[in-house]
Amino acid sequence: MRKWPLILSLLLLLTSCGRIELNELIIVSGLGFDVSPEGMSMSIQLVNPGATAKSKGATESGGAGGAVYTYTISGSSITEIMEKARNMFSRKIYFAHLSVILIGEEFAKSKGLLPILDYLERFYQIRDNVNVFVAKESTAKELFSVYIPIQNMPSLSIARRIDVYGGSMGLQKGVELQDIIRWNYGGYTEPVIPGIKKKIPEADAAQTAVLDDIDGNQKMFEMTGFAFFNDDKLAGWFTPGESRGWAFLGNNVDGFETTVECPGYPDEIIGVKFKETKGKLENLSTDPLSYKATLSAAAEVQEVTCPIALENGAQIKQIEKKAEEKLQREMQQAFQTAVKNNVDMLGLRQLLYENRYSEWKKIKDQWDKKFKMAQLDTSADITIQQTGLRLKSVYEK
Questions:
Q1: Last residue of a domain, one of 214, 237, 260
Q2: What is the mean pLDDT of the chain?
Q3: Which residues form the Spore germination protein N-terminal domain (predicted)?
């Protein structure tokens, strides 16, 4: 019986081994990568728990200061940077709640994705479903140094552009770390990453005092066209319309809003909201190399700026046709941008590899030559189901 007290004591010691208290951690909300004279700089955005609790309704004792602080450390590799970082903080750096990975445009061009992918994929605390963005015409550090109204954490504000609303492209999901790893190592598709920039590039919003200014534009981000890569380095940018075309071809769009030309009134527009969007891309032949893209969606009229009769079924058909033409044009533009830049970010080779492997083996060594002459046939089927809470336009006499 004397052995039981000893056993219980040992069990109590074992259950507490390796435990880390919450007040011993400092939570990383965002990671940003830029070029530096030492090779690279990593901006680490850390959550200030006291200020975050206070912003959510805690008492004055909850803390003060900004909701987050951004620390920028340089080195030749992420391991060297992390070695320096651990000498700076009194708490253990914790990455499990990382919201976003942000890559500066210059870093994406000159260094590419490979210098950061290995560490990010190996480290067990970093989830592979973290959203990734490229800072257009800017650095990651600059975007992480913007205090945002409403959502007081810049990294979380960037990540939720996709998670909550899908951006203007209506994406079902953003581009995640696992997507980039799969594209880079596991197939025949070049990476595409959403872009983001400051709405007013010259605005200084690095101080909390800017939050007292009623003008919200100077402290706001906006999504841009998507960045596409070739051999892991930034090769160019899609326009917003081409970005949506890329998403159509990859069947990664759900609901979005856009404008189409009003039939009979070329200077006026009709606002249309799309939902239940489904896209499909298939290969038709390898000689010549040709593909077919189909798109279907339900739609609702959001706004009318011309005297068109929405109660007239023929007029509705014309609006549907205008919408189909625009969406087909965006798919075609994305395809032609890929061909022009000789960058297969659409997964055209992957499509052949998965579905027509014997033919892919025959043309694999001739791909560059065939790709330059590749063609895309598009079709779209849009059905307007509703006209909102009114039928007639206010412009209709």
A1: 237
A2: 85
A3: 19-197
Q: Is there a contact between 69 and 206 (Cβ–Cβ < 8 Å)?
A: no
Residue 54 pLDDT = 47
Sign for the pseudo-dihedral over CA of 206, 209, 215, 216 = positive
In 161-300, alpha helices (H)? 177-185, 240-249
Query: 32 forms bridges with which residues in the sheet?
Result: 43, 102
Give the strand pairing for 256-262 and 192-193.
unpaired
The domain that holds 279 is classified in CATH as 3.30.300.210
Alpha-helical regions (H) of the chain: 3-15, 49-55, 78-85, 105-110, 114-122, 140-144, 154-160, 177-185, 240-249, 313-341, 348-355, 357-363, 367-371
What pLDDT is attached to residue 178?
94
Q: Of 115, 126, 105, 122, which is closest to residue 44 (Cα–Cα)?
A: 126
φ/ψ bin of 353: left (φ > 0), alpha (ψ from -120 to 50), beta (otherwise): alpha
- For 369, counting Cβ atoms within 10 Å of its Cβ (0-12 exposed, 13-18 middle, 19+ buried), the class is exposed
54 & 70 share domain: yes
Residue 129: domain span = 23-237
Cis check for the bond before 149: say yes or no (omega within 30 of 0).
Answer: no
- HSE, side-chain direction, 13 A CA sphere, residue 126: 21
What is the C-alpha separation between 147 and 210, in angstroms, rounded? 7
Q: Which residue has the higher pLDDT, 69 or 270?
A: 270
Name the residue among 313, 382, 374 with its Cα closest to residue 342.
374
The half-sphere exposure of 49 on its side-chain side, counting CA atoms within 13 A, is 8
Residue with the two structure tokens 């942000």: 102
- pTM confidence score: 0.86
CB 129 within 8 A of CB 164: no
Q: Which of 190, 221, 237 is the last residue of a domain?
A: 237
Burial of 115 (0-12, 13-18, 19+ CB in 10 A): middle
Q: What is the pLDDT of residues 219-268, one digit of tens each?
A: 677 888 999 999 899 999 999 999 999 999 999 998 899 999 999 999 99
Written as six digits, the tokens of 277 are: 């969007």
Average pLDDT over residues 7-27: 63
